[in-house]
Structures are given as structure tokens and as C-alpha cells.
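Re-running the complex after MR caught last week's input typo. The corrected sequence lines follow. Everything else is unchanged.
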Amino acid sequence: MNTVIEKTGSGTKNREIICRAGKVIRSGGLVAFPTETVYGLGANALDREASEKIYRAKGRPSDNPLIVHIADKSMLAPLVKEIPEAAEKLMEAFWPGPMTLIFQKSEIVPHSTTGGLDTVAVRFPNHKIACDLIQESGVGIAAPSANLSGKPSPTEGQHVIDDMDGRIDMIIDDGKVGMGLESTIIDVTVAPPMILRPGFITYEMIKEVINDIQVDKAIFMKPEAGLKPKAPGMKYRHYAPAADYKIYRGDAEEVAKTIILLANEKADEGKKTGIITVNQHLNLYEGKLNRDIIVISLGDLYKPEKIAGQLFKVLRDFDKLGTEYIFGETFSEEHVGWAIMNRLMKAAGYNIVDV
Ligand code: TXA
Ligand code: MG
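Corrected-run output:
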């Protein structure tokens, strides 16, 4: 399939792109588009065949439901059976923004969009191009992250091109996204509401809006542990780089010592080896590594939002370099740190070593 790739630009150019992209969505095609979190791979959420195409393009298991994106709160009511009071409060506080809510679905939402479930995930993104595209299409847009299934979510237009060129109708390339981590998912069909996936809207922020909140216990369990996550997508090995990736937890200096030892060993065996660290720890590695080892910093340890936004890019960069072994550090699990550790653990296949 020929994929039309359009780079965004001036207001006039963007309007023209949106107009064409809207036509593709209305005629049952697939368009990858930017949101404030990560790029989405969109189709008409109410068109059974269109949403089935998404699964094929991503190589996504058909039991993994899609998020329906809306551009106005008034688009929610037709998609759901009821809007619980807690949901009203959360929407008031965090929409438009990086929060997805799970509702009981109405009859018009096909089971192909919801992975066979009777619930539907809905998000109102805070992004002009995403919202203009939804308005232009005139329907909710079902969109998972626009990566091949199992790969890190795309945070740059080029990541989408790398994964989806030739597989979908159109890609809107808007460069880098603002946040770089997928939305927080909250199930509001249960009382109290339950966090199914951590994100930029943190546990602490949610607790300020609705006092009672629970957390899906499976979030931090290895898939083999037997607890089934309530968000089906959380059970798959995700965000995975091609390399063997392990993360090390403990005192920063001890962690660095262990990583230096192990990374040098692998590099001596002739393996392409990388280390993921933060600005504040770069000095712990300086002058102590075999010179072929690639060290990448995620940024400032005290700016976790920035770190969260770099994770997927760094994992993809290591893939492009053909890295075979990656050694990484862990982060505090407070606030956004919880989401960072959730994604890192999944990327590392839960390979975490206490030092
Ligand atoms: O920020 C985001 O959420 C991005 C942008 C594009 O909006 N989208 C995204 O979609 O991350 P995706 O498909 O990669 O992740 C959606 C997650 C999956 O883990 C899926 O299982 C879960 O949401 N999900 C969707 N519908 C659900 C439902 N009805 N019940 C439980 N989990 C659901
Ligand atoms: Mg995804």
C-alpha cells in the first residue's frame, strides 16, 4: 500500500492535510496522527471493518481494545451507557488531556473496537491537529499507539514512518510530541474507580479530585504471576527494544559499579552494549567503560516528566544502533515515576535486579 506522508506546517497547509485525512477516515481508511501523549493510528471507531484494519496494520492481538478519541465532551454520551459521577469530576479536571476513561459501551460501538468487551475506552486529547481531525471526520476515532505491536510507542513522526510506512493510508508527521508517554487509564465502571495504567495524570492528582481510588494490582506483576490485568494491553510484553534489557535497583553508586562490570564483560565478548542513565549519574561511568559502550542519558533526574518523554525514543535509538545488551537504572516510583517504572519494567520484561 502506498502511504501518503504529510508534514505539518502553516495553518493553511494543516487545514488542507486535515481535510484529506478526514476523507480517508470517513471512507474507512487508516491515518496516523499526533496527540499530546504519543502518535495514534486512527480509524472510524463506529466502522467495524475500519477498526479491524488497525489490528492488521499493527499486528495487534484482536482481544486488545482500542481507545476512542473525541474532540468535545458532547461526543461521549452516544458512545456510553452511563456517565458515573466520578467520571464527570475526572473529565472536568483532566479533559482535554492525557486521561482515558473506561465506560460501559453503547450499542453503536462495535465489538471490534473494544476487543470483544462490553466496555469502551474514551479519551479527549489536548492537541489541535488530533481534535481538528476528529471534528473533520465527524466521528470518534479509534486509535491505539501507532507502533507495530510490541514496539515502543512512537513519540516522533519518524518513528511512525519506520513502523507504518506501506501499511496504512496516511501519516501526519508533526515532529516530536509534547509528552511522550501514553495516557493514564481509569476504569469508572467500578466503584471506587480503578487505575489500569499509570501516566502523567498521577495517583496523587486523581486522589485530589475523587477521594476514593483503587489500583489494578496486576500493573506491577509479571504476566506469568497469574493476575490478569484489567487493561488487556498491559499483559503483553510491550515497549520492548530488540536488545536484552535489564534494570538494576539500589544505591546509585553501587548500581553504576555493577553495570560497569557487566557492560564491560559483554563489550569484551564483542556484543554491542548500551547503558541508560541520567545526567546526574553520567560521571559515575566516565572513564570506566570499554570505549565501544554507548551511554545515553534520559535527562535530568529531577525532571521526571522529561525523563518519561524520552524513554521510548531512547529504546528506539538503541534498536537503530543494533544494540544487543542494555543495562539501565531504576527510578523513584512517586508521582510520574510510577508510570516511568511501569513502562521500564515492561520494556525489560520484568528483568529487575536488586544490587
Ligand atoms: O495516550 C494514549 O492513550 C495513546 C494515544 C494515541 O491516545 N493511545 C494508546 O493506545 O496508548 P494503546 O492502544 O496503545 O493502549 C490502550 C490501552 C491498552 O492497554 C488497552 O488494553 C486498554 O487501553 N484498553 C482499551 N480499551 C479498554 C477497555 N474497554 N477496558 C480495559 N482496557 C482497555
Ligand atoms: Mg500501545
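None of the earlier attempt is carried over here. The longest strand covers residues 99-104. Residues 144-145, 153 surround magnesium ion (ligand 2) (CB under 6 Å).
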